Amino acid sequence: MKAQRIESEENTLGTTLRILSANLLAGGADPDAFASLAARLEADVVAVQELGPDQADALSAQFPHGFLDPRLDYDGGGIALARPAEVVTLPLARRRGFRVTLDPDDWPELAMPLEVWNVHVYSPLAFQGGGIFRRRPQFRDLATALDRPTAAPSGRVVVGDFNATPLWPVYRGMAARMEDAARTVAHREGRRPARTWGPRLGGPAFLRIDHGFVAGVRPERFQVVPIEGSDHRAVVLDVAIDDGRFR
């Protein structure tokens, strides 16, 4: 497991798993810059939305495991991994997600499996405002999957672009089921959660619509970092793996 670090920060929190989630603006984000960012942050899991072919090639060169499904529209995505695990698609109405289970056989720090889900909920403004009707069945399927009993104990992390601030029903539906890692960390550090999206490239972020939700693990750090060429910030979530549920 890589030592915890954001840029040049010293590891002070013990053993963690680092998950990076990023919307790449339908291929618009700089492929090499993003792949270098993910490598520099020493991510273990990289969940991407709006993934284009050039971005997939650059990311695969740095993270040889996982599954990436690039598209020329807004539906590309996938999960890239530093170590082996099988990524499967998550059937949701209109736009699928991705799910990976990290097994202790290949991730020996884990005492039990850890699921990571990557989702991209439709914007209500997509399709000339028709996205509001697409996101409802999409989240219905996501909620059904989350509520389904698991066969064995496991931790779970769900990240992605939810296109929902904390005022929106999609966010409230997630927060009713799982812990908002950004809010937990911000409260512990005496600050507000950072915003993740702005309408202008390189401009300030105005809304918090990219999230990380956790269950069965402890969020230790939650940061947002700029992505060159995207209107979204990447979210960087470190979860503790030494709290009794993990070796």
Explain the overall architecture.
The protein has five helices and twelve strands. By secondary structure, the protein is an alpha+beta fold. It has a single domain, classed as Deoxyribonuclease I, Chain A. It has a six-stranded mixed beta sheet. It has a six-stranded mixed beta sheet with strand order 5-6-7-8-10-9. α1 (31-40) packs parallel to α2. The longest helix has 17 residues, at 131-147. The radius of gyration is 17 Å and the shape is globular. The chain starts with 15 loop residues before the first strand and ends in a 7-residue tail after the last strand. Residues 1-14 have low confidence and may be disordered.
Radius of gyration: 17 Å
CATH topology: Deoxyribonuclease I, Chain A
Q: For the residues shown, what is the average pLDDT?
A: 90
For the termini, the CA-CA separation is: 12 Å
CATH 2nd-level architecture: 4-Layer Sandwich
The number of helical runs is: 5
Overall number of structural domains: 1
Q: Main sheet, how many strands, which sense, barrel?
A: 6 strands, mixed
Structural class: alpha+beta
Corresponding CATH superfamily = Endonuclease/exonuclease/phosphatase
